[in-house]
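Consider this one:
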Amino acid sequence: MKLSRYFSDLRSAYEAELDDLTSDSEGKDVLKKRLAAKRSEIGFLVQMLSYSPEMVAVVFHRGFRFAKPAAMQRLLTLQPEALPAWPELAGSVALEPWAEPVALKVLAEPGGPAFMTVAACLEFLHAHGFASADAPPKDADEDEDRRDHDDDDDAAGLSTDDAHGPRDERSLDEAGADWLAEQGFERKE
């Protein structure tokens, strides 16, 4: 199976996000605790559905049951605009009972049904370890993602996401910085 470029790129970001949540500075496994904290903040996190789906998708880690793996594999070959919305996946994927209230909050948001499909695909990809036939080794993938991110910045310091139209980016950036500070990260000046 060959992953679409979209899922190939998102896979690395999703795995990195899970890795970041897995252990603290002392190397202790804190994944459950950090995921619980993120799930409790879903009201804030839904603001990032479209521009940082991997940061929100981790709240559904181990939250899906996959009844039709072949259907999920097919979805991993598609670009985001070709993906079906969440309701169309009935019968192929279901939520664990604990994930249903979180999903209801996400589904109430614009773009929520599309995001839920992406989140299910990312978790399926994580759980089953599929990679594209021509995928570079994982370390090379992460280096390429960092280079790609650096290349996205234009001369004015704006990412290509910022160039796609006006958004209330300032308040989202501030909210994101506040959240990261609460998690123990230093603020960027």
